[in-house]
Amino acid sequence: MSTSATASVSTHILDTSVGRPAEGVAVRLSARTGRTAHWQALGGSATDADGRCKDLPALPEGTTHVRLDFAVEPYFEESAKKQADAQQDAPANRDSGAFFPEVAITFAVEAGEHYHVPLLLNPFGYSVYRGS
């Protein structure tokens, strides 16, 4: 265990429907200092070409819970548009395919630990886990 007074968080997104990183997904980070404390919005970022957020804000000292909010609907809308543009015979009117327009992941943290939380995403489902 690290001697740092705060936990740290990182994430990345893999679009499992195409087997590629999900680029351009907005991610917001919030924290609280106990189960009954109010959420404090810390800021956000967007995933890069590798599906990673490399510049999420640091967590405040005393953080016990973290929430990552992923805005996935715009990503799927853009993906559907790119796919339609690439196919001459594609239907002109396509659904965005985003059954879940947002994904919110809340987890507990301990000071000094690093938490890498990947999001495995497809248009009709998702899963997360604590990575390394």
UniProtKB/TrEMBL annotation:
Residues 9-131 form the Transthyretin/hydroxyisourate hydrolase domain. It catalyses: 5-hydroxyisourate + H2O = 5-hydroxy-2-oxo-4-ureido-2,5-dihydro-1H-imidazole-5-carboxylate + H(+). Keywords: Hydrolase, Purine metabolism. InterPro entries: Hydroxyisourate_hydrolase, Thyroxine_BS, Transthyretin/HIU_hydrolase_d, Transthyretin/HIU_hydrolase_sf. It is an enzyme of class 3 (hydrolase). It comes from the Bacteria. It holds the Pfam family Transthyretin. One of its GO terms (molecular function) is hydroxyisourate hydrolase activity. Its EC number is 3.5.2.17. PROSITE patterns: TRANSTHYRETIN_1 (PS00768). Coiled coil: none annotated. Signal peptide: none annotated. SUPFAM superfamilies: Transthyretin (synonym: prealbumin). Catalyzes the hydrolysis of 5-hydroxyisourate (HIU) to 2-oxo-4-hydroxy-4-carboxy-5-ureidoimidazoline (OHCU). Homotetramer. Belongs to the transthyretin family. 5-hydroxyisourate hydrolase subfamily. This is 5-hydroxyisourate hydrolase. It comes from Streptomyces iakyrus.
